[in-house]
Design a protein that fits this description.
The chain has 314 residues and is of the alpha+beta class. The chain folds into 3 domains: 98 residues, Double Stranded RNA Binding Domain; 87 residues, DNA polymerase, domain 1 (Orthogonal Bundle); 90 residues, hpI Integrase, Chain A (Orthogonal Bundle), CATH 1.10.443. It is built from 14 helices and 7 strands. The strands form 2 sheets. Strands 1-2-3-4 form a 4-stranded antiparallel sheet, covered by helices on one side. Strands 5-6-7 form a 3-stranded antiparallel sheet, with no helix packed on it. Strand 5 and strand 6 form a beta hairpin. Helix 10 runs antiparallel to helix 13. The chain is globular, with a radius of gyration of 25 Å.
């Protein structure tokens, strides 16, 4: 929660443009009232407070500039959000749990509604952009078509296994991780539901679902195969990326994010600082083998010079 000197107005709420990351506008009139503007342009009202030493974000509703008489009550203009935040502030100061109050008022029903709430949770906000895209894809294509209209309180082991079988009919379960990933994602969402009060605490039905084992096939390219790949690729930046991935096992983002300071030819060590687990494990190091050495010397500095000047700078 942050104190602000800015008194929000409808003009400020309307004219503040979305950016590359989430923007938060704090209101000076009511402590804890915040307007969250997402990169997509979606605007939502939140009440923010601290409970047991942790910051709690409670969604009030979606932002609306004005309200007509024909619209439903759940239309949150600036004045309506301020009034609601004021009530929640009073409840919080009296020691009440504002999350329980909001949950009871919303009367949450379906899994799709729960998903929208999950998107505002701490776990979701901490995801990398690529992970968010992956989560949304599985939710849209596989999970919500099966579970979306189910009541959160009624979702059972049977419902989740039915979803799993529906996915497996589309893809071979022994070579695809889709069904297993969807079960794991549903498990995370139901854990959130129990913490947020959408569902009674107890056994998560997704925990007991057996996930089909995946056949792992290790494939090592031989010299002749690498040579054929090289002949097919030809020259150019894209070809250099694929070659380096093939001989090193690096991800495409790791190759594209290479920096000159991370390439130590003398000690034959490649240090990767731009990777998806950087904040957990820190920089990764790879030994530079003969194939990698040739690509790095002959192609990364020459072919990538225009696209990746940081790689080529001494």
């Amino acid at each position: 929660m942050r104190r602000s000197d800015l008194i929000l107005t409808t003009t400020i709420c309307e004219r503040t443009k979305p950016g590359g990351t989430k923007k938060v506008l704090w209101d000076a009139k009511v402590l804890g009232l915040a307007l969250v503007i997402r990169p997509t342009g979606k605007r939502s009202w939140f009440f923010v407070c601290r409970r047991q030493g942790q910051q709690v974000w409670v969604k009030i509703g979606e932002y609306h500039k004005s309200r007509s008489e024909t619209e439903k009550d759940d239309v949150w203009t600036l004045d309506a959000a301020r009034a609601e935040a004021g009530k929640l502030r009073k409840c919080h100061d009296e020691g009440k749990d504002v999350r329980a109050i909001i949950t009871e008022r919303r009367n949450p029903d379906t899994f799709s509604e729960l998903v929208e709430d999950f998107k505002d949770a701490t776990h979701w906000r901490g995801l990398a952009p690529g992970s968010v895209k992956k989560y949304l894809s599985y939710l849209t294509l596989h999970i919500e078509p099966v579970l979306g209209k189910r009541l959160v309180k009624d979702i059972s082991y049977k419902d989740i296994t039915a979803m799993q079988r529906t996915i497996e009919k589309k893809q071979n379960p022994h070579i695809s991780t889709t069904a297993g990933f969807c079960v794991a994602l549903v498990s995370k969402i139901l854990d959130h539901a129990m913490k947020a009060g959408w569902r009674e605490r107890g056994l998560n039905p997704a925990k007991g679902v057996e996930i089909a084992s995946r056949r792992v096939k290790n494939r090592v390219l031989a010299g002749e195969e690498l040579s054929r790949i090289g002949d097919a690729l030809g020259e150019g930046a894209n070809a250099a990326v694929i070659r380096l991935m093939a001989v090193s096992g690096m991800r495409i983002g790791e190759v594209v994010g290479l920096e000159r300071k991370g390439i130590d030819f003398e000690n034959r060590i490649l240090t990767i600082e731009k990777h998806k687990t950087m904040r957990f494990v820190g920089p990764k190091q790879l030994p530079i083998n003969g194939h990698m050495d040739a690509i790095l010397r002959a192609q990364i500095f020459d072919v990538f010079e225009d696209r990746h000047p940081s790689v080529c700078q001494d």
